[in-house]
Each structure stands twice: as structure tokens, then as C-alpha cells.
Amino acid sequence: MGNKEEGGDVPELFETREARFRGVFKVFASTIMGSICLIWIYRLTNIPTSSSGRWAWIGIFLAEVGFGLYWIITQSVRWSLIRFHPFKEKLSLRYENELPGVDTFVCTADPIMEPPTLVINTVLSAMAYNYPPEKLSVYVSDDGGSEFTFYALLEASRFSKYWIPFCKRFNIEPRAPEAYFSQQYSSLQDSKFAQELLAIKKLYEEMKNRIESAIESGKIPDSTRKQHKGFAEWNFNIKKQDHQSIVQILIDGRDTSAVDNDGSRLPTLVYVSREKRPKWPHNFKAGAINALLRVSSEITNAPLILSVDCDMYSNNADTIREILCFFMDEKKGDEFAFVQFPQKYNNLTKNDIYMNNAPQIDEVELPGVGGYGAALYCGTGCFHRRESLCGGKYSKGDRVQWNTESGKNAHRTVDDLEESSKVLASCSYEKGTQWGKEMGLIYGCPVEDIVTGLAIQCRGWKSVYYNPKRHAFIGVAPTTLEVALVQHKRWCEGLSQIFLSKYCPFIYGHGKIKLGAQMGYSIYLLWAPISLPTLFYAIVPSLCLLNGVSLFPEVSSPWFLPFAYVFVAKNVFSVLEAMKHGSTLKAWWNGQRMWLIRRTTSYFIALIDIIKRKLGLSETTFVLTDKVVTEDVSKRYEQEVMEFGSSNIMFTILATLALLNLFTLLGGIKKLVLDLDSKALEQLISQIVLCGIIVLINLPIYQALFIRRDKGCIPPSVMFKSILLASVICLMPIY
Ligand SMILES: O=c1ccn([C@@H]2O[C@H](COP(=O)(O)OP(=O)(O)O[C@H]3O[C@H](CO)[C@@H](O)[C@H](O)[C@H]3O)[C@@H](O)[C@H]2O)c(=O)[nH]1
Ligand SMILES: [Mn+2]
């Protein structure tokens, strides 16, 4: 058991390293700051006196104030970049015999959008961690209330008896079967391995076939239904939003006869579908997690909780051991409430057309907020201390007892545990309690994760953002523009809601988390308002160009310099930052497009919806992210062709903006050529460049409007609407 009793100078279980070049960066940032101030001064001292363009001028000034302030907010995180490095060998030496239990929560909500085979891949990867199996439990929350998901889990519980020993014997990675089988094998020469691989792959395929054909036929075969008492729950007419609570313990980890093919114990596996009734709000994922928190506390009550979305399989079997280095560190471990991993995806294309992987966020901003001890909780790929999630406050000097196996359930039967758990998963259980307020995940916000993480930090806890080289969790990224934008709209709406609520980091977090962390949170919480200056910049300078109204200083004026410097320096910096973290130049460019599209569509619509909600006109919703696509769509995704193909209002907005800039660019150039006035050219060149960049970045949109003929192009109805709208806007006079 090592030297922990000796006290005093025990070596640390992890170290932190600060990013380099922070001094250089501070100098660079102050030159930008200086230029921004100069731009503001220029705007204030040069307001046009004539009526033409006066309001446009004031508007662009406000937009630049908006951009400038937002830029300042984004700086704090770049000053505090910290990376964490655990020493897992030391952990084993010191604590191998007192490792804590870990309860893994897997959430799923719909058997069509989140196929049961996807769910069990995640479940199997979580059951196969390099960790004592009797200390592992996996709870699946099925908000779809689907018999097929239950059936898939039953199949997985049987398959795990072969899968887990196979993983451990050959120490394979990753331990989600589908992902494992889809990669190249290096050691097929080893004939024993090759044999076993073929056998296990066959078993997996057979299982998958059984599950998929059951789903296809729409019913579970009677012979199968007889194999488990759990199916009886579906004898009633179960609807997704209207059913009793279901708790089925598929593997009871206490049972010493529940063993795998090698005779080793198995992790506990539990299926939970909380009660749903039409008149009870179910609070989406937050409600699901809270139900699991209670059910798991009844059954295994592990002190650590891992929560993952159903598409996020574990990609590293040692992850639990790594995060324990943070939690169990003698000096600092006690104050950590959670350890968050970045969200990584296995279905990205080379140039990441929808910017699903934003290095700026994963590699800079999130570790930056983490540097202030306030890493964001992002919903999936996160390990929590149960106590902190259930409302506990951090108090200094409270040493945790990790090994809390009390054996309180030793004499209770599975039936007994199931019955008492069902009560905990019922609708009425939370009535009049602190669940959703002080306890568990917070209700009423579509980004339950961010607000809950913030509340935990304001109770005194710290958190870690840990971004290891080998990705710890890998999921499915959106593969169509619509899904990507709808997801961002949900996030943006939820994030703004936090800013406007009592949880606003500057107020709620005041004196509890550092100012830098408050600013770091606000990078995201202020997504919605930043849509306005962006829209302004994408519309008004172009319209002014069309009307010959100049909004920027002439090239020969010294005032031109700060504009040029901010523009060039900011973009060069952003390219370098992206490429340093492995992006291609094209991916960066695609990212700029997505950045423009998100701000002018998702964030703008979210802003409108927030106002509507404030007026009492709409309610919180949660549009689930689809994790399956048709072959046609996925082929275009592979080729990095943008997918539209629906008449979502967001597409009308983005097509209108693209066309507007095309019209004004052509109109403006025509005017200049006809007038042949070099003075006017000098005054308008900035606007031509701006408008030209917007047109360049929108090339795929024109293609989708006029050239492409596949199913993913922009539908004619959207095209006509946007041509009409763009033309009308072109006719608007400039004040
Ligand atoms: O009523 C619901 C709705 C969703 N979910 C689950 O929540 C997870 C996330 O849903 P998804 O549609 O995949 O949304 P994403 O936008 O991809 O999720 C991100 O953003 C969410 C907050 O908006 C976080 O909760 C997630 O953890 C985070 O991965 C999935 O496992 C769902 O099954 C439920 O359990 N019940
Ligand atoms: Mn997701």
C-alpha cells in the first residue's frame, strides 16, 4: 500500500504545465487592444455630419464596440493555459487495493436516432475498462422507453462474457466492438489472436443481426421474450412519453457466480427507464441523469460517476486510472469536483466542413478556463465526484473516504433492489425536493451541463480539463448542416439563458470563481448577442458599397492602419493557432465559413427565441442530435459537400446574405468602373474587400443554389425566397 501513511512529502500523482510564450502573447494582445481603441476613437471623432450614412456609421461603431468587448472577453483564457499530466503508475503502486467504485451513466433517448447497437457499443466499452470489474457499474438511462434498447442491452450482457476477457487477454483498444473491428490489425500473424478475433467478430455480427432484425420486424420474437422477466414491463402499452418506471438489473455485480468466460467477475449492468407522464415535465437529459443518480445510489452508490452520451464510447481502457490521479492526489485531489475530457469524433473529414472539431476551443479556450480551476462541465466524457453532483459543498480539510463499499445491500435480492429503485425513478418522487435546484443537474436549461458545472464551482469546488494525447472518448459528430446548426441553436439558447438568469457568472460567480473564469464562461454565454454585430457587418457595409457610401478610412489615411492591423493580425494569429493544433488551411477556411453561418443563423434565431421566451411565448425544448444518416447523405459528407436539402428558415437567411453580398459586390464594382473615380475607389476599397471575402466564403452556397442538382442542394423554394429578399434589401436606402 505504499507510503501514504508516512504523510508529509508524498510525491504528487499529477503535474501541471503552463503553456509557453504567454509573455509574447500578452504583448501581441496589447497591440491589438491598442488598435481597437484607435478604431473606436476614429469612429467617434468622424461621425458624418450629413444625413447620408450617418446612422450606418453609428451602427458600425456599435458593432465594433461589440466585437471589441467580445474580443477582450476571449483573452482571459489565453493567459492561463494549463495542461494536466497524471502519473498512473504511481497510483497503482499506492492505491491498487483501495480503488473506488465507478458508476457509469449512459443516456439514450430514441431508438431510431440513437440505434441500440450504438448504445451497446458505448456500454461494452465502459464495461471493459482496465479496472476491477466488481467496482464498475454501468447504468443505461433510456428516455425512449424502448423494448429494443432493453433487448440490445440483454444481448450485450451476454456478449460481454466473451468480449471483456478478449479485450483483457490481448489488451486491445478501443474496447467498443464496432470501432475495434473497423480498424486495421497489426498482429494477425499471431495465430491464436487471429483465431479468437474471427470468433469474437462472428459472435458480434450475429448479435448485431439479431438486434437489427428484431428492430426491422418491429417486434421481439416470443422465444426471446421468454428469456428474461424484464420484457414483461412492455406487456402494457408503453409510449415514449407515457409509461411506468422500469429498472432491470441485467448483471448483478455482487453475484460471485456472475462471471465471464475466463471466470472473472462482471461489472453490474442496469437498465433504467424513468417514469414519464404527459402532465409531468421530464426535464430532458437533466431529469434522466438525476433519476440515475438516485437509482445508482440505491444499488451501488459508487463515489465516482462517469457520464457519457450514448454515442461516446471509451477509447482508452486506462482512463479511470488516469483521472483517479487527480481525485486521489494527497495535496490537491480533495478539491476537485469533476474531470472533463474534450469531445472528440470519429466521423470527421479531412477539412472538417462543419467545424465539428474546433482546435481553438478544445486546445486553447477550454484548457484556458481550466487554468482558472473552473473547467466547464460539457455533459459527456466527464467524471464527477458523486458528492459534488448531489449538492455537496466543498470544505477544506474534509478528507474523502474513497473505498466506501459498505456492503449495505449484501442481503437484498435483485427484485428488492429493483422495486425500491423504481420509486426513485418515478415522476412524483422529485416533487417538493431540491432535485433540479440544489441537487443533481439543474433544470430548465437546455445546456444543463454548463449551468450545473458553474453551480458546482460556486459551491467551492475546482475542476480539471484533461486533454490527453490518446482521446479518451469518441462520439458521432453531426454530418449535415441542418443538424449542426440546430445543435448550435440549442446550445446558444441555453447558454444565453444562463447569462440572463441568476446564474450569470459575473453575479453568481462573483467572489466564488476567478474573474478570468467568469470571462471564460462568457465566451460561450454571449454567443447570441454577438450575432447582431456580425449580421450588421455582413449587410450594411455591402449596402453602403452599392450606394457609394464610404464607411472606412481611405487607404492613404493613417486611420486605415489600425483597421488593417486588426484584420490581418487577428486572422494570421487564428490561422497559426489552428494549424499549430493540426488543422489544415482549408479546415480553417471552412471554420471561418461555419463561424459566419452559425452567428448569422443559429445564434440569431436563438436570440429571437430567447426574447420570445422572456415574453412568455415559447418553452424550453431539446432537439435531439440525429446520429444516423442515409447513405446518400453520408457520401456527400465524405466528399465534403455541404448538405442543405431542407427548407429550414436558417437556410433562407444564409442564402439571402450570400446573394445580397454577391449583388452588392457586382453593383458596387460596376459603379466604380463606370465612374472611374480613383478617389471613390480609395474610399470604398475596404468595403469591396470585405464584401469580396464574404462572397468567397459563400462559394459553396452559390453552388448549392444554382449549380448542384443533388438531393442536398438548396431547394428552389428557398432559392426564390432568398433572391426576393436579397433584392428587396438592395433597394433599401442608406441613412
Ligand atoms: O430528453 C432527453 C434528451 C437527450 N438525452 C440524451 O442526452 C444526450 C445528448 O443529446 P444529443 O442529442 O446527442 O445532444 P448533443 O448536442 O450532441 O449533446 C451535447 O450537448 C448537450 C447539452 O445541450 C449535453 O447534454 C450533451 O452531453 C452534449 O454532448 C444523448 O445521449 C441523449 O440520449 C436524454 O437522455 N433525454
Ligand atoms: Mn451528441
Quick structural summary:
The chain is an alpha/beta fold and 735 residues long. It has helices at 22-45, 54-75, 88-95, 116-127, 147-170, 177-181, 191-217, 222-225, 284-299, 319-327, 359-371, 386-389, 414-424, 448-458, 481-500, 505-508, 515-525, 527-546, 560-580, 585-600, 602-614, 631-638, 649-675, 678-697, 699-707, 716-730; strands at 14-18, 82-86, 102-108, 136-142, 246-251, 268-273, 304-309, 313-314, 336-340, 344-345, 382-385, 462-465, 473-475.
Q: What is the strand arrangement across the widest sheet?
A: 5-6-4-3-7-11-9-12
CA-CA gap between termini:
77 Å
- Name the structural class: alpha/beta
Mean pLDDT across all amino acids: 94
* Poorly predicted spans: 1-7
Determine the oligomeric state from the structure. single chain
The percent range for helix content is: 40-55%
Can you count the beta strands? 13
**From the alpha-carbon coordinates, what is the Rg to the nearest angstrom?**
28 Å
The fold-level CATH name of the largest domain is Spore Coat Polysaccharide Biosynthesis Protein SpsA, Chain A
Small molecules held by this entry? uridine-5'-diphosphate-glucose, manganese (II) ion
Total helical elements: 26
- What is the CATH H-level superfamily of the largest domain? Spore Coat Polysaccharide Biosynthesis Protein SpsA, Chain A
Write the CATH architecture name of the largest domain. Alpha-Beta Complex
Shape: globular
